[in-house]
Design brief:
Layout: H1 2-6, E1 15-22, E2 25-32, H2 33-45, H3 50-65, H4 71-93
Antiparallel strand pairs: 1-2
Keywords: DNA-binding
Pfam family, one: RHH_4
Domain Ribbon-helix-helix: 17-82
Length: 100
Amino acid sequence: MCKLFSELDLKSCAFQIRSVRLGAHVTSIRLEAMFWNILEKLAAEKGATLDRFLTKLHDETLRFHGEANDFTSLLRCACLVYVESMKDVFDAFGPPSDKE
């Protein structure tokens, strides 16, 4: 278990501040690089740009909850839900194979 953390690339833990467009508004979001990587992957899987994906997530949050008090925390949690869902896939079918 310690190797999981001791071999972690510290660059992936560093904060990155990105300027993003949420609909008609431009804002800055500060997340660790690893979370940005996951969000980019999620956006690509949905066939959307990162800004468009974040806008959709923000709009859905407003529609279902009326507000997005801490959108950055919501983004981190969305990434964790995604990673957890991938774990379930690996548990059911095994990790992807390079031989396919």
